[in-house]
Amino acid sequence: MTSRDVTRPICIIGLGLIGGSLLRDLAAHGHAVYGFNRSTSGTRKATKEGFEVSNDLVETLRRAEADGALIVLAVPMPAVAGLLDALAEHAPSCGFTDVVSVKAEVYALVKERGMEDRYVGGHPMAGTAESGWSASRAGLFRRAAWVITFDHAVDTEGEVPQEWIELWTDVVRMIIITGAEAIPARVDRHDAAVARISHLPHILAETLAVVGDNGGALAQSLAAGSFRDATRVASTEPELVRAMCETNAPALLTALDEALELLQDARASLASETSDLSELVDAGYRSRVRFDAREGNRSESVSPVKISSRPVLRLHPGGEGWVNQLIQAESLGGRIEVF
Amino acid sequence: MTSRDVTRPICIIGLGLIGGSLLRDLAAHGHAVYGFNRSTSGTRKATKEGFEVSNDLVETLRRAEADGALIVLAVPMPAVAGLLDALAEHAPSCGFTDVVSVKAEVYALVKERGMEDRYVGGHPMAGTAESGWSASRAGLFRRAAWVITFDHAVDTEGEVPQEWIELWTDVVRMIIITGAEAIPARVDRHDAAVARISHLPHILAETLAVVGDNGGALAQSLAAGSFRDATRVASTEPELVRAMCETNAPALLTALDEALELLQDARASLASETSDLSELVDAGYRSRVRFDAREGNRSESVSPVKISSRPVLRLHPGGEGWVNQLIQAESLGGRIEVF
């Protein structure tokens, strides 16, 4: 084991697109990993492929408790509360992380149960419109942002237990094994950011899909690439979209209100004698150009050596000023490496 | 010459992405075609590639007049009025069409000048964020919708001149040569449809780009595929976006107001105690699924034999009931073939 290896086995609860892909990456890396899947058919398929997967939650949690595993909750938001109770009962000393796309609500449930000392929030920014074990694949997280929260270190003003620091470091290492980039962000900052770049796009796509459909057969016949791209995420399962957006209502409201103000201004201009959309259109163009520039090598480069466009900060967890380094990385959207 | 051939030479004014690609397709088909380009460098490049391209507008229009060409106005909206005046002076008997993305304003300029008898509106639904001769390419229009207007036939209640019917038929044949599908639509129906599926997507993309950018470095770092796809058209030149949207203000207002109502409802629900986005999300999902189903073979099929998903209507221009057939095709978003 090198200093870069996760120091404990990993137990994944929920083997859908995210959990299943994580299982594949960790197993391919040679790390001890096993999991639980609710679906019998998914369990059977995964087992056939040679993975250690059980259909029995209690047994899986007990095994995690016995070998001091890091538990990954890879279930949708509605399943989290019940799973935390199961953890409290069957794996009371394991550290755990999650992959839910909204962090405040998960953290509230964790705090209600007094489990902050053994929890580190996570959110891999990867996924497709598909779901389930059969959609999982190795390499899903390569070059993706994987948010890791650190509120507990800030809230305890540096007096965070050493066990938590070790847990946090293991989660970073797990992220890096998958090829993802570990981006530190506090719960509220994360939720505010994803409201803008993930949840608002869903709301706008649903809206556009409806307005286009209202145009009937002629409008649909004329729709081309821009309509298809702009409504793509409207084909996501409605339950998933609702779970994300409704759970993040306060942050999404802020983003939606900004959008509504821009759209109302555009509306007023279009309704006036001399419509002039230059303010919105110029601002949108500049914003998109900045996005392209920032994204840079991340997706556009044709160079065979992909260099991340995210700034990197190397830090020693628990070391002098490390929490301030995390806050600095957060403000830059930077990735971290630990030593 | 077969019955499917355009009965006259074609003269294209403006050799940017659309005009240039049309020139390439017609020349590849062996049809007599020449054009005018304002840019000296574009003219030089096109000439080097063996195309008949002039830098002299008056000379080009006089040549069109001399050989009875079909003139295609492939210029942006702001250049149309001046060009119509030049046509009136230097090519007073030529029939013409255009490729501008909004049809009401062009038709108003045509009617102001009493040129309805020799005009048929057109709009190919193809394009990229690039522009200019260097962006043009053969095959750009393959399988694209190319709208052809027929208001003059409706307005004259079937008493439309035979010359106009022949002109209209030639425009259909020209469209079919490019591999595009000719979709008949009246000016106002066209403008209402493109407001929904082309102009509103631009407005929403600009808005989303700004709101995402407002989230600063963290939000931009976390932005992934859904944000990139949803803001893609915000990278279009601002002047082009403004020209489309501002010129189509009344129809765009209708579409934007529908969007605003849906977004306001979503906002109200998010702000309430028990946020429930099911109405919007379910409707958006259903709309997008319908769009996919309609688009069907048009873009998703992996079959080597591409079959259009648009219904086809075969008609004889000027024949009994042909205008009603056009109205029927319009309501279906159908493509037409002429015999």
From TrEMBL, chains A, B:
Short name of one Pfam family: PDH_C
UniProt GO BP: tyrosine biosynthetic process
Domain Prephenate/arogenate dehydrogenase: 8-302
Gene3D superfamilies xrefs: 6-phosphogluconate dehydrogenase C-terminal like domain, NAD(P)-binding Rossmann-like Domain
Gene Ontology molecular-function annotations: NAD+ binding; prephenate dehydrogenase (NAD+) activity; prephenate dehydrogenase (NADP+) activity
Keywords: Oxidoreductase
EC number(s) on file: 1.3.1.12
Family annotation (InterPro entries): 6-PGluconate_DH-like_C_sf, NAD(P)-bd_dom_sf, PDH_C, PDH_N, Preph/Arog_dehydrog, Prephen_DH
Family annotation (PANTHER family): PREPHENATE DEHYDROGENASE, PREPHENATE DEHYDROGENASE [NADP(+)]
Family: Belongs to the prephenate/arogenate dehydrogenase family.
Name of this protein: Prephenate dehydrogenase
Organism of origin: Corynebacterium halotolerans YIM 70093 = DSM 44683
